[in-house]
Amino acid sequence: MKTIYQPYSVEYFEEVTVDIQLLTVIGTQQEADDVANSTYNVRLFPDRLTFQLEGEKSLVTLRKERLFFELCTKPQPEPIDLSTYSHDQIMALFHDPDRIMTPDDYKKMDWTAQDAYRYLIERYTPKNKEGYFAFDSLAYRVDEVKEAYKMGTCDVCEKENVPLKKAHDGFDVYIVDVCAPSCQLT
Ligand SMILES: [Zn+2]
Q: 49 to each of 11, 20, 30, 71, 109, how far by Cα in Å?
């Protein structure tokens, strides 16, 4: 029997992190890890958050349901120049409580991409002329999906708050959420 996995990528810009719910995988843990650990660009524009797989041209706009924002409430330590540090000083940094973040330091935010952009633009200046914030990858995680049915937004017709079922999108391991029974994938 195949197992359903839900991979997430954890991305950050300064004190804002976002867990991105990627396409669901039916297959092995390794296949789910590979999806979560692939290389992509995440950009936050004033009105949307986009996702671009390395080597692909198209930017995919991610819906709010796939984005889970958190804010680190602990003040960020000053950036340091490691080249001026001895080995012992660098090792000591790993135990410096000011530089260790725990889950308690993060607050869940019920944000849309627009909300997150409004927060960041008041504090930081985008480093590109298009005006987006480029997020960096922090980690990934893979959850095993126990519940096959849930309420949410159909990946095909975008109807909201409908019962969803999993469907193959034509590739081997990727599956998407479609509203049962009306939407079908070919
Ligand atoms: Zn649908």
A: 12, 10, 27, 16, 15
Tell me the one-letter amino acid at 167: A
pLDDT tens, residue by residue, 62-75: 888 889 999 999 88
Ligand 1 centre distance from Cα of residue 157 (Å): 4
Window from 6-15, 75-84, 123-132 with minimum mean pLDDT: 75-84
| Backbone torsions φ then ψ of 173, nearest 5 degrees | -110, -15
Q: For residue range 88-117, what is the model confidence (pLDDT) as tens digits?
A: 988 888 888 888 888 888 999 999 999 999
How far does the centroid of ligand 1 lie from the alpha carbon of residue 148, in Å? 16
pTM over 0.70: yes
98: CA distance to ligand 1 center in Å? Answer: 48
* 45 vs 134: CA distance, rounded Å: 9
Q: Where are the domains of the chain?
A: 1-74+105-146, 147-186
Cα(18)–Cα(109) distance, integer angstroms: 10
